[in-house]
Each structure stands twice: as C-alpha cells, then as structure tokens.
Design goal:
The structure is a single chain. By secondary structure, the protein is α+β, with helices and mostly antiparallel strands. The protein has one domain (about 1-190): L-fuculose-1-phosphate Aldolase. The chain is built from 5 helices and 7 strands, in the order H-E-E-E-H-E-H-E-H-E-E-H. The protein has helices spanning about 1-15, 75-85, 100-105, 135-145, 165-190; strands spanning about 25-35, 35-40, 60, 90-95, 125, 150, 155-160. The protein has a 7-stranded mixed β-sheet with strand order 3-2-1-4-7-6-5, sandwiched between helices. Helix 1 (about 1-15) packs parallel to helix 5 and helix 3 packs across helix 5.
Length: about 190
C-alpha cells in the first residue's frame, strides 16, 4: 500500500508541475489488493494535487465505504465504476489539461496517434457531458471506456493504465497530441506563412 500511496502523491505533483491540472482540479487513484479485497486509494477533495501528501490519500472499498480519514475526490464514483467494469485498469488519472480540454469543449475530435499502443480507431473516444461527480457520469464513462482514454465533453480527460504512472504518461501524451493538433490546425488556417 505504501508504494501505491507514494505513487499517487508523486503523480499528483507531476501533473500539477506539468500544468495538466490547476487549482484544486483533477484526481488520481489506484487499485490495490489488501487480503484479496480490492481497495481504491484516491486523492482527496478540495486539496490541490500540488499540495497533496501521503496522509491525505483516502482509501475506500468497492462499495465506496471510506476506510481512512478524509473525504475522497468528488469523482470517487467515476473511479469506482471504471475499476468495477475494467478488471485490467489499476490506475486512473483525470485531468483538465488545457489543450485536450479545449478539444472537449469544441466539436473537434483528437486524433489517436502512434506512441501509446496500437491504433484501433482514428480518434479518441468521447462521452457526452454529464454533471461532474454524478452517478450518470460514472455509469456512462465505465460503459464508454473501450480503450485506455476517454474525453469527457465539456469537462476533461480520463486516462487509465495498468498502474497510476502509466495512466499519468497517457494523460501527458494526450495533452501533447492535442497541442500538436491545435497548432497544426491553427497554422493550416492561415495562408500568410
């Protein structure tokens, strides 16, 4: 468990430093086993990922019962729904990174580029807007997540992985390809170059 909690704290700080989250936005979680029972370690609500410490990480069981002190992220149901639906997911990162979230607020899709696994579909999957923290968002996201990333319309990015560090790398990669596509699109709009 100690490695799991430390990884969440390290990833949280990295996401903030890389400007993939700001303020008190975003959340990070990881699944681990404790006596053959799945436990979720998740960042707390209302604490910036920049400032999160190991003692702030909240542990919950698969029914959402809080096992430690603190209050989990408001997106706890989103994380739990995905872990229940996707047995191969052991790490989740939810960001509001500027370029990818910009796409989430537009009618444009992010192309899936090489660099993070086999390309099965030309664009990243997205999910219509649901209220953040809602059961509907949790339920729909778990059903819609067919690969490793999901763009939440008018909200942000959800990246998953075998562990939380892999999910973090994917979230960073998604932001970079969104930035590249935005720059490319902007340059192609102008004939003055």
């Amino acid at each position: 468990m100690d490695d799991t909690v430390k990884s969440i704290v390290d990833v949280s700080k990295y996401l903030f430093e890389r400007k993939l989250v700001s303020g008190k936005a975003g959340n990070v979680s990881s699944r681990f086993k404790n006596k053959e029972i799945d436990i979720i370690a998740i960042t707390p609500t209302m604490i910036s990922l920049k400032n999160v410490k190991e003692e702030d990480i909240v542990l919950v069981d698969f029914d959402g019962n809080i096992l430690t002190k603190g209050k989990p992220s408001s997106e706890i149901n989103l994380h739990l729904s995905i872990y229940k639906e996707k047995k191969n997911v052991n790490g989740i990162v939810h960001t509001h990174s500027p370029y990818a979230t910009g796409f989430a607020f537009s009618n444009k899709k992010i192309k899936r580029l090489e660099g993070f696994g086999k390309i099965k579909k030309p664009y990243l999957e997205d999910l219509d807007y649901e209220t953040p923290g809602s059961e509907k968002l949790a339920e729909n996201a778990a059903k819609a997540l067919n690969e490793d990333v999901l763009i939440l319309k008018k909200h942000g990015v959800l990246a998953t992985g075998n562990n939380v560090r892999e999910a973090c790398l994917l979230a960073e990669f998604i932001e970079d390809i969104a930035k590249t596509q935005f720059i490319s699109h902007t340059l192609n709009l102008s004939d003055s170059f």
